[in-house]
Specification:
The chain is 41% helix and 19% strand. With 384 residues, the protein is an alpha/beta fold. The protein folds into two domains: 123 residues, 3-Layer(aba) Sandwich (Rossmann fold), CATH 3.40.50; 243 residues, Winged helix-like DNA-binding domain superfamily/Winged helix DNA-binding domain (Arc Repressor Mutant, subunit A, Orthogonal Bundle), CATH 1.10.10.10.
């Protein structure tokens, strides 16, 4: 078992600050394991798993069941009972309450919205992904890239075992999780959409093009995209645009958040097949981008592109200053016209080209090449 100390510290701090903490992430990313680790550190813990008929029955009258409790109260798979948010609001407002609530949720496009609206000012969200390179005992970066970070896939005994597990994961999500959310989408249709979306990984979203390929209208493919985004399986990176006298892209970019699932849907079974695949560059870009976002945890993140070809893979704002990242799977990246244009046009304080090499070096007065391995621990913009 991988000990995920950084994540545990974030959850503990959230529990100290807010009466309700929501630990959110995709299925099988380790939320329940993390909650149980935190529970072992605290003496007074009550646990409800809403996938268990017994625990679900215990919450048939939630106010009566939850009001007397003290210490840490953990509610797993909370998306199954969204009506609990109203009860938690009442309990969180009790002045004499000594209880803290840790709710776990996944595979729900409405969970964050419902919790935010019902528990505004009372809840802190902690987002959880797969295994991080900084976790003690985490596998090498290359394995995390090929297999993804979901623990059963990443830690599987063989490449075949990992690939089969991911295939079962996708099937279970489509055939069980989606219908349980009350969403009526044929599993085969959503699988076709998800598989085709894999070929758009790292590209600008085009609902008309994707809809035409699938024989669906724009509204339907947009709904499918939002479903996968809400389930923490896909990231929509918003475009940055401002009045700079250039025509700028205003549609999001789409990335798979777990490259193991990307490779499964692209039918890439192992590292050797990935090395020969035309999407290898886009796959590595998405992997590196996700690691940077999970480490920095910026309040907002964007990409920038113009119709004339200038582009920046990632733009973040820190303390009022703009910083840029490019991701290049190359041996020795150099300054490009696109990055130079982004630095000048957007007024970037600094920019980095993240690449898979070992040496950091300066490219220009405001740009540097940065090995991805340098970004796998705790870091901030100012420490780069």
């Amino acid at each position: 078992m991988i000990e995920r100390r950084n994540l545990a510290s974030r959850v503990e701090r959230a529990l100290d600050r807010a009466p309700v903490t929501a630990l959110l992430g995709p299925r099988q990313c380790g939320k329940t394991t993390m909650a149980r680790q935190i529970a072992r550190r605290r003496g007074d813990v009550t646990y409800f798993d809403l996938e268990s008929p017994g625990d679900s029955a215990r919450l048939e009258h939630p106010m009566m069941a939850l009001e007397p409790l003290k210490g840490l109260v953990i509610i797993d798979e909370v998306q199954r009972r969204p009506e609990l948010f109203a009860i938690l609001r009442v309990l969180a407002d009790r002045r004499a309450s000594s209880a803290r609530f840790l709710i776990l949720g996944s595979a729900s496009p409405h969970l964050v919205k419902g919790a935010s609206e019902s528990l505004a000012g009372r809840i802190e969200f902690v987002e959880m992904g797969g295994i991080e390179p900084s976790d003690p005992g985490a596998p090498h970066l290359d394995r995390l890239w090929v297999r993804g970070g979901l623990p059963p896939s990443c830690l599987a005994r063989t490449e075949t075992d990992s690939y089969v597990w991911r295939d079962n994961y996708v099937r279970t999500f489509l055939e069980r999780d989606v219908p349980q959310l009350g969403i009526s989408v044929p599993a085969l249709t959503l699988r076709r959409f998800w598989s085709m979306l894999a070929h758009y990984h790292g590209q600008i979203w085009n609902s008309s093009e994707l809809g035409a390929a699938l024989g669906l209208n724009d509204k339907t493919v947009r709904r499918y995209l939002d479903l996968l985004t809400g389930a923490f399986l896909v990231r929509q990176l918003a475009p940055w645009h401002e009045n700079i006298g250039k025509r700028q892209v205003k549609s999001p970019k789409v990335y798979f958040r777990d490259t193991g699932l990307l490779h499964l849907l692209l039918e890439i079974p192992d590292a050797r097949a990935l090395d020969r695949h035309p999407k290898i560059g886009a796959s590595w870009e998405g992997f590196a981008l996700e690691l940077v976002l999970r480490a920095l945890r910026p309040l907002s993140a964007y990409f920038w592109a113009t119709h004339s070809g200038a582009e920046l893979d990632l733009l973040v704002v820190d303390r009022g200053r703009r910083y840029g990242f490019e991701f290049k799977r190359a041996d020795a990246p150099r300054m490009t016209r696109s990055l130079d244009s982004a630095i000048r046009t957007l007024g970037l304080a600094r920019a980095w080209i993240v690449y898979p090499g070992r040496t950091a070096y300066r490219i220009s007065a405001k740009a540097a090449a940065l090995p991805l391995s340098r970004l796998t621990g705790k870091f901030t913009i100012r420490s780069l």
